[in-house]
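Thought: the user wants the 3D structure for the chain below. I'll pass the sequence to the structure tool as-is, report back what it returns, then summarize two notable features.
Action: structure_tool
Action Input:
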Amino acid sequence: MVHLYVQVSSDEAQCMSGPTGGKILVTGALGQIGTELVEALRKQHGSSSVIASDLRPVEQVDLSQGPYLTLDVLDTEAIIDVCKKEGVGTVYHLAALLSATGEKNPELCRKVNVGGTISVFEAARVCSMRVFTPSSIAVYGPDAPKHAPQITPLNPTTVYGETKVEGEQLAKEYEEKCGLDIRGIRYPGLISHKAPAGGGTTDYAVEIFDAALKDGHYDCFVRADTRLPMLYMDDAIRATLMLMDESSEHLGESKAGYNIDCFSFTAEELAIAIANEVDGFTFDFKPDVRQNYADSWPDSIDGSVAKEEWNWIPQFDLDAMVKAMLDGLSKNQ
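Observation:
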């Protein structure tokens, strides 16, 4: 695979020798992960040090919690300009099209997920920045073991999965050729009550909670026996911060896309766990095209490498997650 690097001006080249540090930029900050990651980063580093960015116009965003700017991740020069002016030292690159949305528009999925990643990596190369960019369990294909190891052939059957494989390969390439520090986690399905789901195949595990409380019924778009790896968002944010805080000397060849320990359950097990907490809740299973994507992914994840290299252990299991989700949604209603 060959990737062309953007030519930079002499002014931009001055930024290439600058030290890593400074402020934090988050792309895709209004998405499911970004909403909570920005909040966590601002608690850790101070509100003014964390710049949230997304495509939404500034006038449509609440600016009281900290700085925000409208930024297109396909505009490499704009990213470089922002990072130079603001003194950004670390980028959390979350802007992407997720699995179910991406399969509806493969060309746009490749453009945003791969093109946006190259733009951020180019900006990081020019401005000597560290980068976090998430991967996904979608990198696995049906030929992978159902308990997916860290290292195995990656042959996804979805466009979204292909873009995540290429993202991991790009990260390794930029590290080898440009000396960048790029880290990532192969996120499983993420479950959160603070932001709406973003068009992923595992969205049923988020939608079902809202439906249970509002409608008392949910039609699930995967089969009852569909088992997938999942993670409560609090654990996902904690894992992200832990990885970025870890010393480089402790991280090995998997740093561009770590598997992390999480928990797995079937769609029916989740529905029953919710029904045990919500009186009268009923559910049915009506699989659609997203079932095909789910069937190509592993049932569980081997996160032993992350545990060994940076001590990752999740705190939430199925029961704790269900209680936290219902409690959080009830408070928001």
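Final Answer: Structure generated. Residues 106-127 form the longest helix (22 residues). The domain at 191-231+261-332 is CATH 3.90.25.10 (UDP-galactose 4-epimerase; domain 1).
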